[in-house]
Each structure stands twice: as C-alpha cells, then as structure tokens.
Design goal:
Layout lengths: L1 H68 L1 H7 L7 H18 L9 H22 L7 H14 L3 H15 L2
Helix pairs in contact: 1-6, 2-5, 3-4, 3-5, 4-6
Length: 174
C-alpha cells in the first residue's frame, strides 16, 4: 500500500506541474509564433514600401507598350516605305517585337497572368495585322494602313483588352 500511496502522492504533485508546464509551453509557443508573424508582416510592409513604386512603374511601362503597339497608333507612327504591303507588315511586326523586347525585363515586377496577357495582346495584334493583310481587297501598303485604322476604330483591338486587365490589376494593388 505504501507504494501506491507514494505513487498517488507523486501524481498529485506531477500532474499540476505537467498541466502548468504544458499550458506555459502552449501560450509561449503561440506568443512566439504571433511575434514571428508580426515580424514577417512588418518586413513585407517595409519591402512593399520600396517595391510598390517599382511595380507601378512596370505597369506604367507595360501600359505604354500596349499603347504603342495598338494598331491605330502603330500605323500612325510607322509609315510605309513603298507600295509593298508585305514589307509594311514586316515593318509593323518588327516595331511590335522591338517594343516587346525593350520591355521584357518588366515581367519580373508583374504577375505571371499580367505578363501572359501582355504577350497574348502582342501576338494577337500581330495576328490582326497579318490577317488583315491577307484580304484580297487590300493590294498595297497604303490600303493596309487605311484598313488597319478602320478596323481599329470599328472593333475592340487586343491591346485595349490588355490595358483593361492592367488597370484592374493595378487597382487591386491598393
């Protein structure tokens, strides 16, 4: 009996100590996790203070890119050298690709979806121009230039959709 009494006596002291120790561990663990989360959040805020202007600048540059390759603006800025419509198509495509390559580094500052939209807008604009050039009623570069302007006014062009997406994404940053 003496053994059971001493065991119960030990449990009587050990159980409250174990509960107190576990409770202390639990609350200290939660406290330290919360402090770690606060530090991470503070670091993110600090980083965002410096990165947000850079990201906004990237969105601005990509918006400018889309404006520059919009079909109406493109044909106003890139004139045909001669009557050859195929040369004019290649000149327009070269201009689009040059603008795109100039802005490649911006992809690291925007979301993957935004960059995919930019790339899709670029490719769709090139397709738009090449597809229009295939029409039989367009015989030379000057006719193509007029047709691109007319289509850009009548239909929504791919660059407008890309710009709309960028606007929405930038508004989500705030």
């Amino acid at each position: 009996m003496d053994y059971i009494e001493s065991l119960l006596e030990g449990i009587k002291y050990a159980l409250p100590a174990a509960v107190t120790g576990y409770t202390t561990y639990y609350f200290l663990d939660r406290f330290f996790r919360n402090e770690e989360k606060k530090q991470i959040l503070q670091s993110k805020r600090e980083l965002q203070k410096y990165s947000l202007p850079i990201r906004l600048q990237a969105y601005e540059r990509l918006a400018l890119f889309l404006e520059r390759i919009s079909p109406a603006r493109l044909v106003k800025n890139v004139f045909p050298d001669d009557q050859d419509k195929q040369k004019y198509v290649e000149k327009l495509v070269f201009q689009i690709e040059s603008e795109y390559e100039h802005n490649l580094s911006q992809q690291i500052y925007v979301t993957t979806k935004s960059w995919n939209i930019i790339t899709t807008s670029k490719n769709a604009t090139i397709f738009f121009i090449r597809n229009l050039a295939q029409k039989d009623d367009i015989s030379n570069a000057f006719d193509l230039q007029k047709a691109i302007l007319n289509q850009a006014v009548e239909k929504e062009v791919p660059t407008e959709m890309g710009l709309e997406y960028l606007r929405n994404e930038v508004s989500d940053l705030f």
